[in-house]
Amino acid sequence: MAEAEVAAKAPESDAQESSVAGDAPAQAEGNPSMIEKVKMGLADTAKSFMIDMWLARQTPEKVLPLLHKVIEGVKDEFADAVANGDGIYAVGYCFGGKYVLLLGSEIPDTVAKGQAVKDEEQGIVKSGPQIKAGAIAHGTMITKEDIQGLKVPVTMACTENDQLFPDDIRAEGQKCLVDKDIPHEIQVFPGVPHGFAVVGEYEDDKIRDAQRAAFEQMLSWLKSH
To answer: What is the mean pLDDT of the chain?
Structure first.
């Protein structure tokens, strides 16, 4: 599956992009555990005013049109594979997790094109889903409604007591997936921080093992769908 291979390779490219963060311990003389401290404090830091304000500005009306341009590009680049049923797959880390769910749902065409819905009684044309299957690692800003709208198979790698993806929302969403008979897989990794699945050099064996397990979980899911 050509597209599955592309999606599966995304975390590897993430590893290259995260090399700067990975170099931080070597540059911080006498403090090789700096990146662990940053990761462990990520959930608290994400509640800060600046990050909250940034997240609030990244609405589906702004983000989805950009993603649809990427999807159209993939359809052009891998036209034969898409035509033969391999489909397009999406992997979302943190902020991207919400948009994997939205791409796997039917959403108002106005939102997909970057327009806010003004009057639901006027008749709304919906489009989607845009992907064949999805994978999520420690999603951010995911709502119960995001999961309820999902129509494609999804796997989620989560951490417990995550302020950015609360346990109650995950549990309600999973119940909905069961009720709608949507193929899904949800793995909860205890004792690791939000952001644990991002490729990096971790001294903590628990974080390192969880990162590897989450990667294998998502890769296996994409290959099997």
So the answer is: 77
| Closest of 144, 143, 111 to residue 127, by C-alpha | 111
**pTM listed for this prediction:** 0.71
Beta bridge mates, 186: 156
Q: Rounded CA gap, 11 and 211, in Å?
A: 11
| Average pLDDT score over residue span 140-148 | 92
* DSSP H helices in 84-137: 95-103, 109-112
- For residue 190, whether the previous peptide bond is cis, meaning omega lies within 30 degrees of 0, is no
Q: What percent of the chain has pLDDT over 90?
A: 46
Residue 180 clears pLDDT 50, i.e. is over it: yes
Helices and strands in the chain, H and E counts: 12, 6
The SS3 call for residue 59 is coil
Residue ranges of E strands in the chain: 89-93, 107-108, 126-127, 133-137, 154-159, 184-189
d(CA 212, CA 75): 30
Pick from 118, 117, 88, 82: which is nearest to 103 by CA? 88
pLDDT of residue 42: 59
